């Protein structure tokens, strides 16, 4: 997981943002704009990452695992 200071600016956050730019076009099913997704963790080699979505209908956002394409999504109530 990226810590608060890493979310603002860090090499890991830059790697996650770069990965998002690559995988976003491969996932046309996403109902969110690229800039609405916030990477929250990235693996050491930069092959997959997790991002959180904006909240929907006043609830919590979902966490999406990207491994090239969207691999899994968990919504929270």
List the helices and strands and how they pair.
Blueprint: H1 4-8, H2 11-23, E1 38-42, E2 49-52, E3 62-67, E4 69-75
Antiparallel strand pairs: 1-2, 2-3, 3-4
What brief labels describe this structure?
alpha+beta, 77 residues, 23% helix, 2 helices, globular
Q: Assess the beta-strand content as a share of residues.
A: 25-35%
- What is the approximate shape? globular
Q: Compute the gyration radius: what is it?
A: 12 Å
**Tally of separate helices:** 2
Low-confidence stretches: none
Characterize the biggest β-sheet: 4 strands, antiparallel
Number of strands: 4
Average pLDDT reading? 82
Please give the oligomerization state of what you see.
single chain
Structural class: alpha+beta
Strand line-up across the major sheet: 1-2-3-4
Fold and architecture overview:
- By secondary structure, the protein is an alpha+beta fold.
- A hairpin with a 1-residue loop joins strand 3 and strand 4.
- Helices cover 23% and strands 29% of the residues.
- The longest helix has 13 residues.
- It is globular.
- Strands 1-2-3-4 form a four-stranded antiparallel beta sheet, with helices on one face.
- The mean pLDDT is 82.
- It starts with a helix and ends with a strand.
- The chain has two helices and four strands, in the order ααββββ.
- 13% of the residues are buried.
Briefly say what this structure is.
With 77 residues, this protein is of the alpha+beta class. 23% of the residues lie in helices and 29% in strands.
